[in-house]
Amino acid sequence: MRQIVLDTETTGLDWKSGDRVIEIGCVELLDRKLTGRHYHVYINPQRDIDAGAMAVHGITNEFLVDKPVFKDIADEFAEFVEGGELVIHNATFDVGFLNYELGLLGRPVLTALCPSVIDTLKLAKEQNPGKKASLNALCSLYEVDNTHRTLHGALLDAELLADVYLAMTRGQESLIMMLDEPPPQVDDGEGSGLIERPPLRVLRATDEELAGHDKVLGEIAKANKGHCLWIPPEPAPAA
Question: In this model, does residue 82 exceed pLDDT 90?
Answer without folding.
Answer: yes
